[in-house]
Amino acid sequence: MELKENSTKTHNCETQGEVKTESRKSTPFFIEELSRTFSAKLFDEDACRQWVIGRLHLDGARCPGCNVPLQDKSTLANFWQGKRCCCKSCGRWFTAKTRTFLQGMQMEFRQVFLLAVLLDLMENPPTPELIARFVGVSLNTVSFWHKKIKVVEVVENEQ
Description:
- The chain is α+β, with helices and mostly antiparallel strands.
- The protein has six helices and four strands, in the order ββαααββααα.
- The protein has a two-stranded antiparallel ribbon with strand order 1-2. A two-stranded antiparallel sheet has the order 3-4.
- α2 crosses α4 (109-123) and α5 (128-135) packs across α6 (139-158).
- The longest helix is centred in the last third of the chain and has 20 residues, at 139-158.
- The two termini are 16 Å apart.
């Protein structure tokens, strides 16, 4: 792998609606770059919403007022989309977050997902086997890339 010592390149980084230009050495993306640009915006909101709501309602979609399972197609669609819905049995309006620990939450579902993942990583750092399973590659591939990234980080730190 060839690294260019003195070349710089300009790229755009979005920061809360504004675009700033910064200059950096022309090296591959790794931990330092990742820590500057990694955010919940990298995750699909719909997939994260489905994951979060699915964990909140393991027994399926039910009215939090009368506990009747939701069966109407449009009510179910609204429920799983995180929108307001009305129970056909008791007339109560609610969302999938009503009467859960997420009620009143002002974060996007992808932020909740990322927060859950990062909090779990604080308590349970991932093993190389788990990383391989998450990424969908072999354990040898994880080991190979781990070594490769470490070499690049050492080279970058020496410059």
